[in-house]
Amino acid sequence: MIGKKMFFLKAFLRSEKIRDQISFDDFLGTYTKEKLTAFSNAEIHNDRVDERNLAGILFKVEWNKNDAFFIREANDKMLESIKYEIREHDVLLRWEEDEFLILLPECSLESAQKISHLIKSIIESKSFVNMRATLSYAITIHENDDTPDGFALRMEQELKSKEEV
């Protein structure tokens, strides 16, 4: 039996916001679409007593140089690097031009915080196309009454509130 969170996750992956973002980037779009298709067809069972949550981490990237060509190339290289730092069943998406999202099924809030801190420290310690990135992030956990849009909106609002501080 597939759990409620899996049904939510499938709906989230098929939502209009995700479809728009996936088709935004041709370079990563192929990888992302294949990953999403494989993931949405997988059977991840969440109906266990020690059920873990679906976590989402929304990252915002700021580069130390402002050159559109190099920023695009640096973003691509950075995302390529990140996909080696996440688990096989996690989903990495480009969200906006300067944002990316990682969906972490069967992941607690504490684990999501550790993962986000690890990715932030790894990425900020590397150079991509002679540029350095600074990451800020927001984490959210699936709630029982969530809709895909509500889940995404909560992450976006949390990230925006962190940027305003």
Describe the fold and architecture.
With 165 residues, the chain is of the alpha+beta class. The chain has one domain: Reverse transcriptase/Diguanylate cyclase domain (Alpha-Beta Plaits), CATH 3.30.70. Helices cover 50% and strands 18% of the residues. It contains 6 helices and 4 strands. Strands 2-3-1-4 form a 4-stranded antiparallel beta sheet. A hairpin with a 2-residue loop joins β2 and β3. The longest helix has 17 residues, at 109-125. The protein starts with a helix and ends with a helix.
Would you identify the CATH architecture?
A: 2-Layer Sandwich
CATH class: Alpha Beta
Low-pLDDT runs: 39-50
**Termini gap:** 43 Å
Global structural class: alpha+beta
The number of distinct structural domains comes to 1
**What is the tally of beta strands?**
4
Overall mean pLDDT stands at 77
The major pleated sheet works out as: 4 strands, antiparallel
Roughly what fraction of the amino acids lie in strands? 15-25%
What is the alpha-carbon Rg in Å? 16 Å
Q: State the share of residues found in helices, binned by percent.
A: 40-55%
CATH homologous superfamily annotation: Reverse transcriptase/Diguanylate cyclase domain
Shape: globular
CATH topology: Alpha-Beta Plaits
Number of helices: 6
Structure summary:
The protein is of the alpha+beta class and 165 residues long. It has helices at residues 4-14, 16-22, 26-41, 68-82, 109-125, 148-164; strands spanning 55-63, 91-96, 99-104, 133-141.
